[in-house]
Amino acid sequence: MLDSPPKAGAPDPHVLDLDTPVTVRSVRVVGAVHSSPSLFYHAANEAFNLPESNDTPSPTTTPLVDVILTAQSEARRLLRLGAFGDVSVTLDSVPRNRKQKNKKGPTPVDLVFEVKEKSRIYARTGTDLGSQEGSLNASFNIRNVFGKAETIETTASLGMQTHFSLFPSSTPVPQSQPFASQSSSVFNVVYNQPIDADPDRRVELSAFKTDRSHLVFSSFQERSQGLSAKYLISRTRLGDHELKWNGEWRQNHGLSPTASWSIRNEAGHSLKSALSHTWVRDTRDDVALPTRGSYLKLLQEWSGIGGDTNHLKWDLWHQSAFDLGRGFLLNASVRGGTIVPLPHTVLNGTTQVHPRSRVNDRFFLGGPTSVRGFLQNGVGPRDGRDSVGADTYWSAGLSLLTPLPCVDLTTPLKGHLFLNAGAGRMRGIGESSKEHLQALVETPASVSCGVGLALRLSMFRVEVNYCVPVLALSNDQYRKGVNLGIGFQFL
Predict the structure, then answer these.
(1) Model's pTM, two decimal places?
(2) Rounded CA gap, 331 and 286, in Å?
(3) What span, in angstroms and rounded, lies between the C-alpha atoms of 288 and 293?
(4) C-alpha distances in angstroms, 435 versus 324, 345, 361, 381, 445?
(5) What is the C-alpha to C-alpha distance for residues 221 and 108, in angstroms, rounded to an integer?
(6) 356 within 8 A of 362, measured Cβ to Cβ
(7) CA atoms within 13 A on the CB side of 11
(8) pLDDT for the residue numbered 48
């Protein structure tokens, strides 16, 4: 016998009002082939406090409109896991028997996820461009390895960094060596897994091997291989956090015949085991060419959990962007960091009471994305022609981005005027932190200014500037003239 249609003006019994109280009874999944049901259960349980079985009602009673909005939010979170090409969610009302119809209370509903999984295996190749460097890379990836949105990524990269000259503008360039280049290679295997289906909480394990040439600036080559483990938390009110353990075996080798004694003393093997915490808070509206917002990054590292590399290290970077109106933008940046060597016992059993930091861990200044107008690693302590890095440094920059004639204000091409400054210093043997910082304050800064163009392309920025070093120390490496910079972060 067919149900009679509702009378005119009477509510349709099959339509629920948005304020109707409901409880989510269970989760159903449609279209999941390789994904574990627990992946969806974790996603829904955090929001709806699901019952342990379908016969047990959920203790949480929620208006229907809130359930719909929360379910859509969970669908978007599942999509951010990277295992699905599409995720949609619907609510299915649960049929009631006669006894249940007579009872007053919330309406039970089922949460139905309809998903389309991405291909589990994929490979890609590409090129990356940086400051005067480029690389070819290839990766092989496996998605949803165990059904909980895990990924395994294997990456191999081969890069080449080319520099127009090793010499400052005041030094004649030999015709036999107008250019210099150095290569690098990276091999990395990374396992990444979200925690309880949350794309904002992840665990990452990796094994890596890298070969980098520092022959152009520091007369040595570096080989490192090791393991790392990370715990990542993102999208918190205070920003993103990364807690990391890194263990690597490093070898400085292949020294050039003209290597300085500072670099020769660094030759050989070292073992580093370090804990670090990185905090990033980014409110900029654009990474490459921001018009408003700020960026703050703080790195804290303790090395010395085994191995023969012991130090405390801090690195801080802050940038603020201001929209001045009529197409004018002002970007202000400041960076600073320090590394404090700690007494330790080296591999041969000798205890170093007044240790020195290692060149692999120090700070380097200069280049198109750092203190413009100076060569890459051209600012700071040197031994002969070799840049040996700084234990403590600071740098600051102001960039005024201006509209251009006949160019629309919405076009990501701007005129660029800049002023940069920076200085770095190595810690003296037996020197206290107070004495070291006082000496850094008294160290003259390297200063440059210039004018040029800045263009945002996709996610990176390209600058062409005419640079003029205003103040330079006797051992600084600088070049007056046109400089090209390509990268993500600029001073």
Answers:
(1) 0.84
(2) 12
(3) 12
(4) 41, 25, 21, 17, 18
(5) 66
(6) no
(7) 6
(8) 73
Three-class secondary structure assignment of 209-258:
EEEEECHHHHCCEEEEEEEEEEEEEEEECCEEEEEEEEEEEEEEECCCCC
C-alpha to C-alpha distance for 20 and 90, rounded to whole angstroms: 16
Q: Is 434 helix (H, G, I), strand (E, B) or coil?
A: helix
The 3-class SS string of 16-69 reads CCCCCEEEEEEEEEECCCCCCHHHHHHHHHHHHCCCCCCCCCCCCCEEHHHHHH
The rounded distance, in Å, linking the Cα atoms of 224 and 372 is 30
Which residue bears the tokens 């790392």? 228
Neighbours of 260 (CB within 10 A): 20
Helices (H) and strands (E) in the chain, counts: 6, 24
End-to-end CA distance of the chain: 78
Element (DSSP H or E) covering residue 72 = helix 64-79
User: 409 and 327 in contact (C-beta within 8 Å)?
Assistant: yes
Whole-Å CA distances, 280 to 232, 242, 275, 285, 371: 11, 9, 17, 15, 22
3-class DSSP state for residue 262? helix
Phi, psi of 59 (to 5 degrees): -70, -10
CA nearest to 452, candidates 423, 425, 426, 490: 490
Dist. CA 334–CA 132, nearest whole Å: 23
User: What does the alpha-carbon distance between residue 83 and residue 476 come to, in Å, rounded to a whole number?
Assistant: 50
Pairwise CA distance, residues 461 & 297, whole Å: 19
**Spatial distance between the Cα atoms of 346 and 341, rounded to a whole number of angstroms:** 13
Match 């047990």 to its residue by tokens: 56
Q: What is the DSSP letter of 334?
A: E
Amino acid at 292: R
Beta bridge partners of 194: 202
pLDDT score of 336 more than 60: yes
CA pair distance 362, 387, nearest whole angstrom: 11
pLDDT digits (tens, 9 = 90+) for 59-101: 667 788 888 888 888 888 888 888 888 888 888 776 655 555 5
Q: 260-285, pLDDT tens digit by residue?
A: 999 999 999 999 999 999 999 999 99
What is the SS3 assignment for 96?
A: coil
Instruction: Return the percent helix, strand and coil in the chain, to nearest 5.
Output: 10, 55, 35
Burial class (CB in 10 A: 0-12, 13-18, 19+), 153: middle
Coil vs helix vs strand at 75 = helix
- Rounded distance between C-alpha atoms, residue 9 and residue 447, angstroms: 80
Distance between CA atoms of 381 and 387, rounded to whole angstroms? 6
Q: What is the DSSP letter of 436?
A: H
Residue with tokens 């060597």: 341
- Tell me if residue 130 falls in helix, strand or coil: strand
